[in-house]
Amino acid sequence: MEQKQYWNEVSSTKEFTIPIDAELFTRYVGKEDLILDVGCGYGRVLNELYEHGYQNLIGIDFSKGMIDRGHRQFPYLDLREKTDEKIDLEDNSVDAVILFAVLTCIYKDEEQKTLIDEIRRVLKPGGILYISDYLLGEDERNIKRYEEFAPVFGTYGVFELPEGAICRHHSQDYIVSLLEEFETREFFPTTFVTMNGHKSKGFCYFGQKSK
Ligand SMILES: C[S@@+](CC[C@H](N)C(=O)[O-])C[C@H]1O[C@@H](n2cnc3c(N)ncnc32)[C@H](O)[C@@H]1O
Fold this sequence. Notes:
The structure is a single chain. The chain is of the alpha/beta class. The chain contains seven helices and nine strands, in the order H-H-E-H-E-H-E-E-H-E-H-E-E-H-E-E. The model has no long low-confidence stretch (mean pLDDT about 95). The strands form two sheets. It has a seven-stranded mixed β-sheet with strand order 3-2-1-4-5-9-8.
């Protein structure tokens, strides 16, 4: 929760960019299904799903600023402030969870694991987890900052932006181990444009909770 202040400060200015693969999503998730977007920001992805005909949508984010902006921008969406490590929903109650560019905001292994365990708890058996996030880059700019900050944060791939955000890029092996309790349905590398306009290596993942 330590970066909440940063996300509140940028909540009215940042535009998020990771695209949703709506065609792939519709192969796994039905229009009537209950979808939870964890770290939904101002609700950009949920709004896109809404425009594709999904209506059973909930978004949660620990930044009140993001949620307030979402209420102004998309007043018809159900966006809620997440005030605790626990997700305020029943066990086995959600058909699909979306997690877009949120792991990159959580640099500690244990905190990522806690969030993934919470997501697994609220997903129904057979429920889908759709993640898009960043992989380690191999370009000079990224390698330089990974090496500079590895001794500070203790993990290669974690770095601090000049504006104060601490971000993490992940190895594919790490992501596989983080998600080992899910059955992988799709996992492929891709390239994103970041919220600061740079090109970055990423991945798209669909996993399923065991039935
Ligand atoms: C890069 S933004 C992406 C927002 C949104 N998923 C999108 O793609 O448009 C990351 C969001 O995750 C939220 N966030 C970061 N860590 C979180 C946590 N531990 N719990 C809930 N939200 C978190 C931030 O407040 C921010 O809105």
